[in-house]
Amino acid sequence: MKKKYNHIDIEYAIEVLNSPQLSLGEDFREWISDKDNLELYKELRKYREAGFIAENYKRPDVDKQWSKFNRKGSSKRLFILWGSIAASIIFILSLTYLLHVEGLLDKLNNENISEVISSGSGKAILVTSDGEEIVLGNKSTQIIQSKYGQGIVADSNNVIRYLTQGKAIDTPSKAMEYHTLRIPTGGEYQMVLADGTKVWLNSESELKYPTEFSGKQRIVALKGEAYFQVHHDKNKPFIVKTSKVDTRVLGTEFNVNAYPKEDMNITLVAGSVMLSNKLNKVENKVMLKPGENAFLNPVGDNLEVSKVDVSKFIAWREGYFHFDKERLEDILTKLERWYDFQVFYQNPLVKDYEFKMRADRHEPFSQVIKRLESTNRIKVRVKGKTIIISDVKR
Question: Which residue has the higher pLDDT, 38 or 98?
Answer without folding.
Answer: 38
